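[Automated response] Your request has been received and processed.

Submitted sequence:
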Amino acid sequence: MNLRIMATLAITAFGTSGLADVTISHGYSAFGDLKYGPDFTHFDYANPDAPQGGTMSQRQLYGASTFDSLNIFIIKGDSAPEVGHHVYDSLMERAYDEPDAVYGLLAETIEYPDDLSYVAFNLRPEARFHDGAPVTAQDVVFTFNALKTEGHPFYRNLLSDVLNIEAESDLRVRFDLAPGAGSALPADIAERAILPEHFYENNPFDESWMTPPLGSGPYEVAQIDQPRTITFCKDPDYWGADLPVNAGRNNFECYAYEYFADDAVGFEAFSAGAYAMRVENRSAQWATGYTFPAIERGHVKQMVLPDARPARAQGIWFNMRQPHLQDIRVRQAVEYAFNWEWSNETLFFGNYKRTDSFFENTEMEATGLPEGAEMALLEEFRDQLPPEVFTEPPHVPYAGGPSPRDRVGLRAASRLLDEAGWIAGDDGMRRNADGELLTLALVDDSRSLGRVVIPFIENLRSIGIDATFDVVDPSTWTERRQTFDFDMSFTAWQVQTNPGAELRAFYGSAAAAAEGSNNLTGLADPVVDALIERAVAAETREEVVVAARALDRVLRSKNIWIGTWHLGAHWVAVWDIFGRPEQPAPYDFSRGVDFWWFDEEKYNKLVADGALNDRFR
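Generated structure:
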């Protein structure tokens, strides 16, 4: 049964033809029915009776190694991403046991016509910012206008089909959408953090700053020890504590995030009990490092938590703005120098799977030869695509061999470089006809990838490329990424379960020229743009899958990256002081931790045993 509440009146949908049926609902799903009805009390993966209190102390999120700004919405500065996780509320909250559904948070209801020419949100009158000021439609208008004009390029791309935003009253806001904007856009709008306009009178939106930001979410910034620690504690007067989307959520009194520039130091701190939860990103550490006394005594637990979302598109991305990387033969040659098989067996203990698709571990991954609806879509662009897109399976990166220097791959790389006009001289280094040396720099702000990258660099140098692994400080790397001052970058992107407008930010032509954008490769291709728009405008899940498969196949034919590895789960180590729901949310691990709780009985036992200091109560 469709649980959306259908309005009985017909209204004119501006910018479309005539009258349209309008849906008014407590929730929204791009495709299909909602799992939870208007009277639901909590998500199935929540424990509404979870104990309250304690501190969740963990290593920093998303691999950041430092922070010098609390403004997370712009490209300036190294911002602390945890601010967005705790301080702000959005119009609606995602359900992480459904692929794409959102339910009312700041907004009590969502309204939209069948043709999606607009979407409107009716705000809850009780919603408040931390200073007691009401959340109004004017704040929503301010937020989206700021994101569209001065925000990070990711937001500008994501919201490019929002034509106009209007506060129709203090509690109602309307977004007019471009024709064909796609059914995913209302949820993309609903999930954006809503900002208080009055806060930005003294804190310019387009500047970085360390002023504790004002939001309407469950937590406030309580303590900052820049750049080592940031702590968030509950707003005791949080307006939304009793909403169904928050039942069993936000159980900890505080969240503390510990930043470590050197992950080895971070690991030692965890083993000593300096923080209580660690998501492990290093396979060698996971396989051999967890042998400290707290593990042996059962005080620290290791868990493998599954993640049903698309695997992150992780790899070594080429910056094709660089003249020497515009030749696909050079990029293909560099790929041959990365020895995946040896890396996985020797460095990763065989734990990972190879990433070759931009939609890895989903039905959106292109396989075999194109057929059916995918073939019909690609046929529209046949004269703009290489023949092998139609006659060969999608590109799979070279696997390598059992020894670090795989001669088969390196010989193939040398042939490609010869064909591209990069000839090895008497010194063994490759130069073009103008005598220019072929140089490549892989830049990062951490040495933690050194054991993977250095053998790769050595292979490149063995075939005459002047390759380097340049480790710079985080601020320098942020600036260089924003200005695309690099040859290669080790980076990972993750798309939604139903990908849509975010694809423009990663692969679209408009993002290629925008400083600070997520289009690191500089890809600007009309066929890619057209396939992205087909995914954005899809009206069914089947249409999304077809467009994504075609896009995956075309992207892979362009050799814009070297796909590396994925797990499809998370390695998590915790001091045994927490409780978790029996049925965790399948679609977002990081948000799933919001539904954990502090187990005081377990904690008291570890403190009494001398395993932990009494620092997390």
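Summary generated for your ticket: The longest strand covers residues 162-169. Confidence is low (pLDDT under 50) at residues 1-18.
If you did not submit this request, please reply to this message.
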